[in-house]
Amino acid sequence: MARRALKIFSLAAATSGVYLYGNKHVDPNDFGIIRVGRAIATTAVITYDYLTSLRGVPHGSEEYDYVKSQVHLRSAERLRDLCCANRGTFIKVGQHLGALDYLLPEEYTHTLKVLHSQAPQSSMQEIKQVIQEDLGKEIKELFVNFEDAPLGAASLAQVHKAVLQDGRTVAVKVQHPKVQAQSSKDILLMEVLLLIVKQIFPDFEFMWLVEEAKKNLPLELDFLNEGRNAEQVAHMLKHFDFLKVPRIFWELSTRRVLFMEFMEGGQVNDRAYMERNGIDVNELSRNLGKLYSEMIFVNGFVHCDPHPGNVLVKKCPVTGKAHIILLDHGLYQVLTEKFRLDYCRLWQSLIKADMKQVQKYSRRLGAGDLYPLFACMLTARSWASVSRGIDRSPVTANEDVEIRTNAAAYLPQITQLLNNVPRQMLLLLKTNDLLRGIESALHTRASASSFLNMSRCCIRAISRYQRSRTDSLYRKAQISFTEALSLWQINLYELYLRLKGSQLGNWVITLLSWMHHSLY
Fold this sequence. Notes:
With about 525 residues, the chain is an alpha+beta fold. Among the domains are: about 20-120 and about 180-220, no CATH class; about 125-175 and about 220-330, no CATH class.
């Protein structure tokens, strides 16, 4: 039945294509029947593949695991091709899935990751049209120079470098012209298809993906909202001198065109760039961890799209320190106070390996009896590592393979969890995985310093909350003293780790050891 449906849709697409592709001014993707037909056909083929390929294969056998892996891979490739063909919202959702390392089968995440670098570009004619419609002026009236080749293209927009008439160099983000009109229809189509698939596979729980797209896409399509987010995070984290956020030029910006200060640098996961420019990857990783710990635990206002194209690094010629340039501020998650404090306490429990508290706060965050799986999803560590303490040992290659294998084995339970946890958690899980991907590329993953930074922010956040809940000056002073003592202990432990890892520290430890043996 699925193959017959595919033939029908292919015939319809081919017949329409004779005219559409012959007309240079008509894009077949503008026609709903082709986009819908392509999506239905792809869904039908993927469903048929899962239904028939695993039939008769003994469940739990090596053959079953191999066949399932091949079906995952074929399905991921079909899904990738659908996203590239339908563009816009489809690419955005595909990118979200591709960012869920350690949560989805590797065949899907690895295949869909390419969507970050393979987003389609709008033509210069389309870019000129959007600028003319929104600003009422031709490109030559606004700019001394406007580069035709975009600096980067994403699912919803692309960015061009330009020079204004007054000589300022700017980055101009221009929305793809058809995204606004197509997005709501695309989301409805996805919702219908996911509901149909769920009827066939009851364990298939991906409605959370559509719900997130419904909520976030309108915000991401409003570039004025993106500009406000950029200014808010720049003000919120102004005490970090290594953070740079492009300034917004409000007098020229609209909902579909955003004018920003032009900034450039290497992508944060480009280790070769770091080596060429003498940038300390350990310090860079620590600073990135500080930024996100502050956003998540202290402020509850989180940039949720830190893929490498949105996080650039540049060495300051004056100070010699590396600046982190944070781009693309369309997607933020605002955390409620209750959620943020429960999340703080959960991470404190994970770092301390306090399993009773891990269970308590995982349940409060919607994990229920699946709290061990939830802890593994959050940390991307095995349950054995979580139980011992995630700061006690680095991630080994074997453990990494185990986690990725379990993502496929426990997919029904993972999707159930994703459906049950608060919606705020979904973007945090995606953000966690993107940050882990950066750390893996820099070879700095799961360093002790990252957990120390998280601990500091958790202590500060909880102490601030406790002070706000009491009117007693004595109690406020007591809380502040306990906070200062805890932070001092962390600083002392960090100093010990740095000494231990340095040549001077090794000499001191060797000397103390020699003195100890000499005395006894």
